[in-house]
Inverse folding.
């Protein structure tokens, strides 16, 4: 293939986002096998950890099978060329977790906040820089902010020390034009690499990622077979094939990457993610896909259709962490006589 | 949702293309259950039959579980609002099969040919018109022809009596700009509705279908959960959600469609289709996805990597029916010393 477009750096959170699909139960052997295969294929960055990042293993969101330390040191042993990355959400992780992560060989740490709350990333971005690791800022549920707001929030994170910024389509709500407008606004506002992290709820993860690249994103997140929360992430090996077809170099050996994806399907996942009706409803409504279980339970209890409940949650603009709104919304729908 | 864009007619071949994924083993109960659910949701056209169409049940491509007559009459009993469609490939089906199909209540018959061989559709398009059914012409493996060629071939089919034309992305090879250019050329050349039938090998089936609509297509094929050959078709319920989001009416009740897709996943398929490495390789190379089994066998025997074999078959521009080229290509690769 002739490389005519800009080079794209692929960031691979298979061993972190995929954890959501299996209640954070990856063991050391699985992590070693996939990290080695991704490294062999030349994947530039491999992210490892609990689905919710450093320090998140807990009763509330689920205990990891093995500790953060064991996950990181296992991957570190086999990553010879790939950088190792970790995610952290202030509230779950502390500065101690960051120090611990860097001690175990993490090269890149991403600090994530809700799309309008970049200010909460300030302290930890600073700590990461002090520790000498690469610091990146992440905005979650980014469809809930408009392009200018996102650009402003990204600029704040860069001010705090972020050497890269990333917008997450946490609900899988975007269509390509939505992504293009946001990435264009962000790339105009900051002078660090801009990344996009897609989910496939509307079947658009690859198309959205290409729209991001066309609008100036230079880093794209993608997971083997799309292994990730809900409908899954952008499918890594498919993305790289399409990028190559469009003339964007990635430095990845696509044949070896296909082998790595085959291995991932075999050793990491019960089945690859697909788009079920609940994922579709949450993506369409712009609701956090982690709400699937409580929403199904509340819909059942109140006798309303899950589809209508997701639409109502979307209208209420609920954000991750607002699980308590779900039963209320279901009861209100039932009271309004919305039929199942 | 406000409907601002043109109305799109969704053509649903779940009960025909999905047969490829299960060796044509749908029984009457399955057909009845899904056809009734699709009808209830308001899907305008439901296509039923053997994966290769009327008269194709055979040792060579696999025997259907039940006869064409039983499939059609079963679906006919429960389709109250939806039109019933059938596919036919000259060579498999004869004029007798067409008469039989219309007698069993088929409203629409599609006659399919390789993308450069529209002339073979002439006789059967005429027979369908004589029988008083709606006649449509289909071009298979349409990525192997350029926009002008496709437009020419479509115009020929309209001359023969086609009241609609459809281009199939049989290999799942297209990216949105490829589809847009072709549909635009065809809509400029013919005055009948233009349809697009996508496969998801490059994760682009929904995005490609949207590109088709934007370029003037007024009919889009899509299957519940994408149930279809190889990596599957455009996912019906996802497509309708995205079309609604973009302001295109479909006349379909999305909530009932989601229920129909849930039923389809439960009663029709072992698992919904996903994009495996072989599907990706065949999509990228533009090779007919039905070549999966013989290609894997030939690669194994010759000791070459399936990925390289698909690339070689793509370079040789093999078309459906040229299975005999596969072992030759594998042996040639092995002789050139291409390593596994």
């Amino acid at each position: 293939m002739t490389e005519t477009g800009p080079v794209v750096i692929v960031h691979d959170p298979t061993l972190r986002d995929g954890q959501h699909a299996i209640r954070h139960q990856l063991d050391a052997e699985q992590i070693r096998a996939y990290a080695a295969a991704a490294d062999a294929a030349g994947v530039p960055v491999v992210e490892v950890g609990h689905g919710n990042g450093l320090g998140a293993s807990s009763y509330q969101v689920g205990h990891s099978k093995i500790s953060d330390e064991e996950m990181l040191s296992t991957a570190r042993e086999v990553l010879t060329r790939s950088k190792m990355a970790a995610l952290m959400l202030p509230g779950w992780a502390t500065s101690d977790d960051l120090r611990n992560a860097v001690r175990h060989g993490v090269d890149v740490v991403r600090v994530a906040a809700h799309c309008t709350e970049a200010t909460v990333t300030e302290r930890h971005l600073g700590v990461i820089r002090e520790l000498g690791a690469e610091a990146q800022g992440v905005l979650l549920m980014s469809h809930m902010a408009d392009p200018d707001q996102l650009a402003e929030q990204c600029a704040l994170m860069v001010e705090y020390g972020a050497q890269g910024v990333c917008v997450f389509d946490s609900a899988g709500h975007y269509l390509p034009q939505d992504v293009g407008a946001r990435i264009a606004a962000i790339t105009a506002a900051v002078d660090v690499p801009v990344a996009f992290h897609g989910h496939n709820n509307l079947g658009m993860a690859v198309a959205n990622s290409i729209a991001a690249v066309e609008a100036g994103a230079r880093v794209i997140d993608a997971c083997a077979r799309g292994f990730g929360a809900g409908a899954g992430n952008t499918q890594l090996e498919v993305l790289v094939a399409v990028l190559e077809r469009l003339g964007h170099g990635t430095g990845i050996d696509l044949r070896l990457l296909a082998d790595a994806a085959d291995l991932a399907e075999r050793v990491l996942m019960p089945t690859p993610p697909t788009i079920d009706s609940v994922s579709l409803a949450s993506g369409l409504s712009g609701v956090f896909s982690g709400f699937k279980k409580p929403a199904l339970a509340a819909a059942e209890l109140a006798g309303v259709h899950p589809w209508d409940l997701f639409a109502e949650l979307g209208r209420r603009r609920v954000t991750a962490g607002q699980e308590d709104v779900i039963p209320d919304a279901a009861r209100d729908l039932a009271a309004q006589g919305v039929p199942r």
